[in-house]
Structure formats: C-alpha cells, structure tokens
Hints:
Mean pLDDT: 87
Distance between the termini: 67 Å
CATH superfamily of the largest domain: Nucleic acid-binding proteins
Strand content: 25-35%
Number of domains: 2
Number of helices: 3
CATH class of the largest domain: Mainly Beta
Number of strands: 7
Strand order of the largest sheet: 2-4-5-7-6
Structural class: alpha+beta
Amino acid sequence: MYGKKVKLRFLFLVLLLATVILTVFLILQSLKENVIYFQSPSEINSLIEIESKKIRVGGMVKEKSVVINSNEVNFIITDFKNEINVTYSGAVPNLFAEGKGVVAEGFLKDKNYFSATKILAKHDENYMPPEVKEALGVK
C-alpha cells in the first residue's frame, strides 16, 4: 500500500493537472469569442451560409467607387476578381483613398453588402496587411 506522502503527492498532481486543463479551456473559450476572421471578397462570394459574426474584409478600394454623404461613406472593396459594397458611418482614416488597400471590420449583410463598424487603412505606400497581400496574390 502507498504511504501518506505518496497519496498527497498524487492528489497534488491531480489537482494541478485539473487546474491547468481548466485554465487552458477558459483561455481558449475567451479567444474563440474575440477572434475576428479576415476574408477577401472572393472568399465571401464563395460562402454557402452568411453568419452574423463580426469579420474583416480586405482588398483594394475600387477606383471611382467612393461616395461620401453627410455622415456615411459608401465604397467598393475589390480583390480584382470579386467585389463587395461597403457602407460605413463615421470618419474615415486620412490614408483612405481610391486604389489603396483597406480592411473594413463589421458585419456581412449578404454576399454583396457589408456594413462596416471600423475602417483600417494602410500606413504608408508600401505596406499591405499580410492577409490582403496573400488574398490578392501580391508578392
């Protein structure tokens, strides 16, 4: 039979293992709720089902597509294969312009319409987010 010390060590290891498993589970659940997925217009076009989760859509702002109303900006994001119409209420970043890279964060209404809650523009003429670069096939 095992002594008292061995039983206490075993109990300690079991409690430690259970604590680690619970901690990892809680961290993964928290991350799952806060992750925002990036998609290109082509990926959105190939979706079978529209989810109501927050996503990011990235690509280039189509030339001559920006329409600015009093409190709303409408434009088209393209990956040169497919396009998606974007509506955003609020001030756009200073670097937001036609023909430039952009990432819009918000909710997909259907495969052709995206309601943005945040607009992210690249910070200089050479930078492009890695996800956008990969989706556009730019090296």
